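Appendix B. Raw example, untouched.
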Amino acid sequence: MNHNLYESLIEDPSFISWVHSDFEESDSKWSDFIDENPDDYETINKAILAIRSLKGDSFEFPQKHELLSRIEKSIGAEVLPISGNRPFTIRKILAYAASLTAILFFAVYFIGKKEYISDTGKQLLVTLPDQSSVTLNSHATLRFNTILWNFKRAVELQGEGFFEVTKGQTFDVNTPEGTVSVLGTSFNVDSRLNHFHVFCFTGKVSVTGTKSTQKYVLLPHEGIQIQNGTATKLSDRKRLRSEPFWKSGQEYFDETTLTDVVVDIQKYFEQKITISPDIQNIRLTGYVPTDNFDTALQHITWPLELQFKKENNQVYIYK
């Protein structure tokens, strides 16, 4: 390295301004200088790196060795020698490449992004790029990227959805509470805050909760419920259903606490349901229609000998 040239460059205000201006200010002067001194590319590059590392710090020091000491400490990486091109050209190429990458990311992320939201009390059928289908239950959201689909079959789900997946590479359903992975099968996913319920109807399903590394494998008519970090295996081999109850406009509860019943039913209606604290753990078994609010309330309260009263847009259930 040419030490005299190095010291001269890092003290030259014009050279410093040229580097700090992203090689725009006085560009013709320093471009010509570089072309005229091809043997000093390494020295020029180190000078550029030194000025970059010190950023906007002042270069006017009473003693030159203090400045040089700071520069030596600042340079933590070896500068590779450059041949055939000016040093600043490579930096510009990298900047252009980064800009192109950002543009491509924008195109992939925003242009290919799809989002579907089902209305309260309504179901929504969504056909995916590989002809798999998802039926969203009331008040659910599904997102996926059509451009990335050929590389990885993956969707994001908030709420509840019934999936019928065509055979192929791994298909992932990512939710805030966990991930479901399959190759080709039909299954139901219900993901809410601290509640993650997956049920397999055909094929085989792999389930992993976000708060645990343990993986659960479900066969047909098996399910898993992960609530507040606790996992419970479920089975429904007696009914041998091919789809969830909610697709036919009803919910079925099997010894389910009234609190969980209300949480599940609430997603179908705009009205707010509140229950008395002393009946929260009463358990309900039976069918509850989800197409009519008054009918749903009657199916919940009558078997349990409970009462309910309406006030504006709210309902209070009590004993």
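End of appendix B.
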